[in-house]
Amino acid sequence: MPSKKQLELLYLRTADEIAQLIHNRTFRAGERLPSLRRLAAERKISIATALAAYAKLESDGLIEIGAKSGHFVRRQCDQLPIRPRQRLHAAPSRVSVSSGIIAVIAAMSDRAVVPLGGALIAPEYLPLRALNRSLAGLARASLCGATYDGPRGPVALRQQLAKRSLRWQLSIDEDQFVTTVGAMEAIHLSLSAVTRPGDAVAVESPAYFGLLQAIEHLGLRAVEIPAHAERGMDLDLLQRALRATPIRACVASPNFMNPLGALMSDEDKQRLVALLTRHDVPLIEDDVYGELAHDGSRPMPAKAFDRHGTVLLCGSVSKTLAPGYRVGWVVPGRYQDKVESLKFSHTVGNATLPQLAVAEYFESGRYDRHVRKLRSNFARGVQRFRDAVVLSFPRGTRISTPRGGFALWVEMPRGVDAYTLQADALRHQIAIAPGPLFSARRGFRNCIRISCGYPFSPRASAAITRLGELAAAQLG
Amino acid sequence: MPSKKQLELLYLRTADEIAQLIHNRTFRAGERLPSLRRLAAERKISIATALAAYAKLESDGLIEIGAKSGHFVRRQCDQLPIRPRQRLHAAPSRVSVSSGIIAVIAAMSDRAVVPLGGALIAPEYLPLRALNRSLAGLARASLCGATYDGPRGPVALRQQLAKRSLRWQLSIDEDQFVTTVGAMEAIHLSLSAVTRPGDAVAVESPAYFGLLQAIEHLGLRAVEIPAHAERGMDLDLLQRALRATPIRACVASPNFMNPLGALMSDEDKQRLVALLTRHDVPLIEDDVYGELAHDGSRPMPAKAFDRHGTVLLCGSVSKTLAPGYRVGWVVPGRYQDKVESLKFSHTVGNATLPQLAVAEYFESGRYDRHVRKLRSNFARGVQRFRDAVVLSFPRGTRISTPRGGFALWVEMPRGVDAYTLQADALRHQIAIAPGPLFSARRGFRNCIRISCGYPFSPRASAAITRLGELAAAQLG
């Protein structure tokens, strides 16, 4: 006869296996689960163990007791896709998102909080041990750090980036790169290089809040171009906006834009660049998620269609290798002199050693292997988070179907206020990012972004269940 | 009988010792040196060796053959002090220095060039081996770098800075620091926090060109307040400017301002803060040279007199430990929220590991020992560079007498154009920084800054001699 301990393991394993089947959608939302008797027979366990397993699943919020009898996979919301928006407000808006971002940032460094707010990645997904070892070796072997980098950053890194650009279906010379403190500095410098205060900038809607904050700080105004949850920025609406109002720059993230995870087709990328070129508007392309296709492909940046040097391509290793290394870059095209000059007056240069460690990691050939694994972690993780939202959130909730990256965009019924949900969730030690942060016009009041950079743990699962309850509570 | 090799060493040693006596001013400019016979007798060397020593000194430009006979210490310019300027142009000027800075930056990374241009420090003066070892240890022991720092930077560094602030005669809490990518980012963020495009900012004249470039890039205008070469910004003129024109911020470097090396007295610091407070103008205080007093003292920052949180104190380790670590900070006072928000949108955070290595170095207690040595290196080095300028530059040249730091400001006769001199010097592989870069109004056309962060080597000595010749050639 099995010991108490073994029995305990047994019911937990059974519950876990059924949870897997639910997440895999072998059992669909609303479906009836096997009876206790059948489950016990199939698994060769006692009825008591089967009952304990179902009780666990019920307390986890994955299943429920049906009105008549039996256990059912809990169904809260259907898998409604995000509806594309088609309303364009061509008048540029002053931006004011800064105050709301503080709560998101503050929660990022609190380990007691379930990290679904900031776009953070689980340390176990990142090759920090290898990278840090490489950095340690470089530090011991040299007097690196005694002087400033040249205006473009260390040539060792730029050479590796030049080589990598071939995989992006580009061929960028090492001297066309300027390294930056993450992609955020790259975007900030690019915006500074091509605009003056008061200018209007076209952005995706929703858009990454850090971008909106940069627009705010630079005294620019935003024209929000609705983005389709699967295809990205709506180019017809962009065209209308370009005709309606003088726009000085466009910032877009055609590859897996944050927060929607949309992927723009190559045809649309070409059209985007052509359209902007026709209106003499530079494109600042944020490609930080470009490596993170869930299907393993590496889509090309819109920069590949740039014939006149008017696309400023921004990238970093913050979403693939090491956020805390602060290694990014920009390929500024015809704005290179301006960007180099701005870089000097902003930060002079980057810390040298982290850049050399990243260069060494690229050179070692381990990067591609690592990114393959990371991609499949995210593909699986995002799917499981998504399933959990489907199971837990109120009816009428819509969810994005990201093609890459690790963000989920959740549009709840109108009656749910994202700021209230953020505050309620924080009281339960759960961080999320409220929708209005992703909009200059403070739209998306009933939306949230859920960051899925950490594994879908029992803790994360419970957090999603709790979020669903809190959202439902707002609906009364 | 001594070998040929020994003889060679003998004449070189003799020349070197006499050079020392000249640099020490035991022999003053214009003074007659001992005759060959006397020198030979005193040193117990042959006449031929004495002759060879004098020939070496002559070719080094330190001595000359007199009109009648005998050897004399070469006198070119007298030790004229920099004349304080008293003219104030209270109307704010648009700034445009960026283009001129590029040549200075480009020359910084070329090892073939004698580095008298950028404010670089000789690697052998910096404890990079110890710092890098510390960084390597931290990298091996942790998964540092997997995530972003909190909005203020790592607490380990801020704690050390809080402790160090006691030595600045301040007592700053760790939570009042925000770490930045060097002091340049600190100044940039501070300017962004307290101004809007078009605002006027009071700056010292001359002022560090990186500051002027930041003012240019932010669309601000500058009001240049003449600075006294020994006492710093002229507070009477600042007061006049504050009455004459609306000024939104003041940037000053009371401790060993770059390029003059002036030190403002504590009384004047107090007056500066009081004056600005009365006009409701925040002070951005650049204290990067504060540790580098030639007499070994540590003057307090003006922040010590701040009663209302309106002084934003900026610092870094770039002039004392490791420029390439890019570790700086700001104590933003009442502007803390704004600065933190700006920091996030500019660069999100710093690279983590270099900051932790600096924190560890501070904690180890080695920092103060190191800085003592560095200070005395700079005190001696600047003095030798200064003597060389006195010996080599045309009559009528005026030279600063820095109280700290490692810059020399040289005001040549009116007929010398600094840009021409910069171009001529670069053809001889010598970098300098032309005076107009230090002025929004492109003043100081006959001035240059000579950076003395490298030892006064024979190569440096020859470069100063060459610069003197090139300047003299312009006078015809």
Structural features, described:
The structure is a homodimer of 476-residue chains. In chain A, a hairpin with a 5-residue loop joins strand 1 (63-65) and strand 2 (71-73). Chain A is of the alpha/beta class and 476 residues long. Chain A is built from 15 helices and 18 strands. In chain A, 42% of the residues lie in helices and 14% in strands. The model of chain A has no long low-confidence stretch (mean pLDDT 92). The first copy, chain A, has helices at 4-23, 36-43, 47-59, 98-108, 128-141, 155-164, 182-194, 209-217, 235-244, 266-278, 336-347, 352-364, 366-392, 418-427, 458-474, and strands at 63-65, 71-73, 80-81, 93-94, 114-115, 178-180, 200-205, 221-228, 232-233, 249-252, 283-286, 311-316, 328-331, 398-399, 407-411, 430-431, 433-434, 447-451. In chain A, the strands form 4 sheets. In chain A, strands 4, 6, 7, 8, 9, 10, 11, 12 and 13 form a 9-stranded mixed sheet that branches. At the A-B interface, helix 4, helix 5, helix 7, helix 8 and helix 11 of A face helix 4, helix 5, helix 7, helix 8 and helix 11 of B.
